[in-house]
Design brief:
Largest sheet: 8 strands, mixed
Strand order of the largest sheet: 1-7-8-6-5-2-3-4
Helix content: 25-40%
Number of helices: 9
Oligomer: single chain
CATH topology: Rossmann fold
Structural class: alpha/beta
Order of helices and strands: HEHEHEHEEHEHHEHHE
Number of strands: 8
CATH class: Alpha Beta
Shape: elongated
Radius of gyration: 20 Å
Strand content: 15-25%
CATH superfamily: Vaccinia Virus protein VP39
Length: about 260
């Protein structure tokens, strides 16, 4: 690569780095610049909708900006949500609370700010969870349905960009460990599955934006500190046509005994 082209690439990467902020969970900025296969052996939405009735009280933990919760079309008066990321807290207050949804700031790992036996169903898509707290806020026979990001998610991309490679950010995020935690907390496991699917980047700038957004997977990443690794990634991209890794997901449907 010429010096001029390298300079242009670095400028473009700095620009991506500078705008790497999102509200909710919106990755539309890198649409068509990466692909992530989501043909999982389950449909998270259908796992929920196949069991959800209009009169049921529903809690969505780590709701993001409430996008998925709203897409379910459940009566707002029977919906509640929690979120702990400050920008998303404000977004939820602006969008969910005026609709009559019971939104409360809370960390999914910690105590949930609801009374015992408040809900018929608790859902959690890619958020933190506390099995004992979920058990407490569910009614007898209530359901917990979750899709989770696994421990090995995006690791080839982390290894590409960071040296030394950081440890797994969530080393217990495996289906077998989650199953045991929920059984110990007093649940019966009704359904479970785990899978790995491809993720591909066609633009190093999109990967820069992604790495800044997913900061827990790419701790300490910046264009300046990882410049040589980014230049190597650009070389690999031009040679192979894409930068490839795998996403790691698992799902669990559990019922309070």
């Amino acid at each position: 690569m010429s010096d001029i082209r390298i300079s242009d690439l670095i400028s473009a990467w700095h620009a991506e780095e500078s705008i790497a902020h999102i509200h909710g969970w919106d990755f539309s900025h890198i649409n068509n610049r990466y692909t992530e296969e989501t043909d999982f052996p389950w449909d998270y939405r259908e796992l929920i909708l196949g069991r959800l009735k209009p009169e049921m009280k529903l809690l969505d933990i780590d709701t993001g900006g409430g996008e998925f919760l709203l897409s379910l079309g459940h009566p707002h008066r029977n919906c509640a949500a929690t979120e702990n990321y400050p920008p998303n807290i404000e977004l939820c207050r602006e969008t969910l609370s005026p609709l009559g949804i019971d939104f409360r700031p809370a960390d999914g790992n910690g105590p949930l700010p609801f009374a015992d036996g408040s809900f018929d169903m608790v859902i959690d898509r890619h958020g933190d969870f506390n099995p004992r707290e979920i058990h407490r806020v569910l009614k007898q026979g209530g359901l917990f349905i979750t899709q989770q990001v696994g421990a090995d998610n995006d690791r080839a991309l982390v290894e590409l960009l960071l040296d030394p490679v950081p440890p797994l950010p969530f080393p217990e995020q495996y289906l077998s460990i989650a199953e045991e935690k929920f059984r110990t907390a007093g649940f019966e496991i009704l359904e479970q599955a785990e899978c790995f699917r491809p993720i591909k980047f066609y633009d190093v700038g999109a990967l820069v934006w992604f790495a800044r957004i997913i900061e827990w997977e790419f701790p300490g990443f910046s264009v300046d500190t990882c410049l040589l690794r980014l230049l190597n990634a650009q070389h690999l991209l031009e040679e192979r046509g894409s930068l490839d890794a795998v996403v790691h997901r698992f799902m669990l449907v559990a019922q309070k005994l």
